[in-house]
Amino acid sequence: MDFKLPNLGDSGSHFGPPLNNKSNTFNEIPFSPYSKFDKITQIADFNNDIKDEQSKQTSKQLKPLQKSIYGSGSATAFGYIHGEDEASFSLVDNRTSAKRTVALGKRQQSRTQASRPTATRTNTAQRQQPQQTQQKQQPRTHRKMGWKDWDKPNRIRDASVQVEPEWEKLAEIDFPRLNKLNLEVNEGEDVETYGQLYPYDRAIDRITTKNEKPLEIKDRTRYNPTTSVDPVIKKLAQENKAEVFATDCVLSVLMTSARSVYPWDLVVVRKGNQIFLDKREGGPFDFVSVNENATDPPMENDKETLNTPASLSFEATYVNHNYTTQVTNEEGKPQVLGGANPFYSGDEPDPLAKNVYKYRKFDLSIDESEKMDLIVRTELDAYIPNLKKKDPTPTPHITVRALNEFDHRAQGSGGALDWRAKLDTQRGAVVATELKNNSVKLARWAVQSILAGADQMKFGFISRANPRDESKHVIVGVQSYKPKDLASQLHITLSNGFGVVRTIVDLVKNQPEGKYILIKDPNRSIVRLYSVPANFGEAEDDDQVKEGAAAGAN
Question: Its family (predicted)?
Answer without folding.
Answer: Belongs to the eIF-3 subunit D family.
